[in-house]
UniProtKB/TrEMBL annotation:
Keywords: Dioxygenase, Iron, Metal-binding, Oxidoreductase, Phenylalanine catabolism, Tyrosine catabolism. Pfam families: HgmA_C, HgmA_N. This is homogentisate 1,2-dioxygenase. Belongs to the homogentisate dioxygenase family. Its cofactor is Fe cation. Its EC number is 1.13.11.5. One of its GO terms (biological process) is L-tyrosine catabolic process. Residues 439-475 are annotated as: Disordered. The lineage of its organism: Eukaryota, Fungi, Dikarya, Ascomycota, Pezizomycotina. Residues 289-444 form the Homogentisate 1,2-dioxygenase C-terminal domain.
């Protein structure tokens, strides 16, 4: 602490700050001064505006970036459907596939690595809610890839922002704005529409993705906590400008649009941005830098104190998506059951485990690269083994989660599970409830009744008309 110790060393430079106005140029003087779109931008570059929000969005929400590139993005052939019969991350559009809305608690064994596919083809929608065509809702994905993307391919999602959570392996991501290296215990956000290419410098990768169809991720409000703690803005990192000069090779631009895959061809690299400035860009964050809050007196606080990023609905305080982590932390609360309490929640909770063991699930069924889903109002909490241990352990200060990192995608929406997530992946644990909560035993003991003397003198059985009070029983 406060930074993770990574096995794979960093190879790129970054600019620091969340939602900060950044500017970067790979060639000195490539950024226009005092104007965004001069008649002739420096060095013969083209000015291109990338809008992540409506032009008229309130200033504090507005996200736009100006790119200065060798050729504009519009110079490509028509997009054509690609693999239209097999590639679909919006299965509600297929009559023979559907979203299953079920109240059962679900848990998955670790998802398999797949060394036969690249990043684009490794994406599997496990669960979700809403519709990307209406810019509402979320998608929850597993990725597991073993190959680099083709050297002349780039990908973007028109459907939403990708929040990427690696669990195994290293992602080397080349974006239009520059390069980002993402390792387990880091996250990366690539906003809607930004093109990128993924290579795998250490072999196969696996992890989780939360795609946000509406709005963008923000830091949560801190309220009484004050002006610092949780995820601090200075610890988010954005790439610096980095470009290629290639106007002859054929490139394929892959687009995820309404859950389907499209392809266009162009004779120039999409990674030709010489300079850029704005608020709309990819970024990464080291989860080891999260400053955890907790109780120093009694009771287990709500898990909202572990929120890294949030995307609010139109009702303040209610999130379409929260990204929450459970990092190593000290527990010191007195006379308190320290794991999370049993609860039913109006929010849906999808959990994953990056490494180690989650302190509320010590029975062995919740494993790294696995997942669980506790949908709206489905009861859950510590498994029986954890409850027994936590109910009897000596309450001294102790650190939990050493070497561990669990996380949660939380949403106010009722989450449906795809055919792949429920059946085809063959990872759902059929005995999740039986192992976790059915072994819980009742400990209730009715108190022994106590006779209350009320000073009435000698106690009689009492008959009709007695003046003396008759003793009563109470608990």
């Amino acid at each position: 602490m406060p930074s993770s110790q990574f096995a794979h060393s960093e190879r790129y430079r970054y600019m620091n700050g969340f939602n900060s106005y950044h500017e970067s140029e790979a060639v000195d003087g490539a950024l226009p001064v005092g104007a965004n779109s001069p008649q002739k931008p420096p060095y013969g570059l083209y000015a291109e505006k990338l809008s992540g929000t409506a032009f008229t969005a309130p200033r504090h929400e507005n996200q736009q970036t100006w790119l200065y590139r060798i050729l504009p993005s519009c110079g490509h052939s028509n997009f054509e459907p690609r693999e239209s019969s097999t590639y679909n991350t919006n299965p509600e559009n297929k009559p023979y596939e559907k979203i299953h809305h079920i109240p059962n608690q679900l848990r998955w064994d670790p998802f398999d690595l797949d060394e036969t596919v690249d990043w684009v083809h490794s994406l599997h929608l496990v669960a979700g809610a809403g519709d990307p065509t209406m810019k509402t809702g979320i998608g929850m994905y597993i990725f597991a890839a073993g190959k680099d993307m083709d050297p002349h391919e780039a990908f973007y999602s028109a459907d939403g922002d990708f929040l990427i959570v690696p669990q195994h392996g290293v992602l080397d991501i080349r974006t239009e704005m520059g390069r980002i290296l993402v390792r387990p215990n880091e996250i990366c956000v690539i906003p809607r529409g930004i093109k990128y290419r993924v290579t795998l410098p250490q072999g196969p990768v696996r992890g989780y993705i939360l795609e946000l169809y509406q709005g963008h991720f923000q830091l949560p409000e801190l309220g009484p906590i004050g002006s610092n703690c949780l995820a601090n803005a200075r610890d988010f990192q954005a790439p610096v400008a980095d470009f290629d000069e290639d106007t002859e090779s054929e490139w394929h631009i892959l687009c995820k649009f309404a859950g389907h895959l499209f392809q266009a061809k162009q004779t120039h690299t999409p990674f030709d941005v010489v300079a850029w400035h704005g608020l709309y860009y990819p970024y990464k964050y080291d989860l080891g830098r999260f400053n955890t809050m907790g109780s120093v007196s009694f009771d287990h606080p709500d898990p909202s104190i572990y929120t890294v990023l949030t995307a609010q609905s139109d009702h303040p305080g209610t999130a379409v998506a929260d990204f929450v982590i459970f990092p190593p932390r000290w527990l010191v609360a007195e006379d308190t059951f320290r794991p999370p309490w049993y609860h039913r929640n109006t929010m849906s909770e999808f959990m994953g485990l990056i490494q180690g063991q989650y302190d509320a699930k010590t029975g062995g069924g919740f494993q790294p690269a696995g997942a669980s889903l506790h949908n709206v109002m489905s009861g859950h909490g510590p498994d029986a083994a954890t409850h027994e241990k936590a109910s009897n352990v000596e309450l001294k200060p102790n650190k939990v989660g050493e070497g561990s990192m669990a996380f949660m995608f939380e949403s106010c929406l009722m989450v449906g599970v795809t055919e792949w997530g429920l059946k085809k992946c063959q990872k759902v644990q059929q005995d999740y409830n039986a192992e976790s909560w059915e072994p819980l035993k009742p400990h209730f003991k009715r108190p022994t009744p106590k006779k209350i003397e009320n000073g009435a003198g000698e106690v009689n059985e009492g008959v009709l008309g007695d003046k003396a009070q008759v003793p009563h029983w109470t608990s």
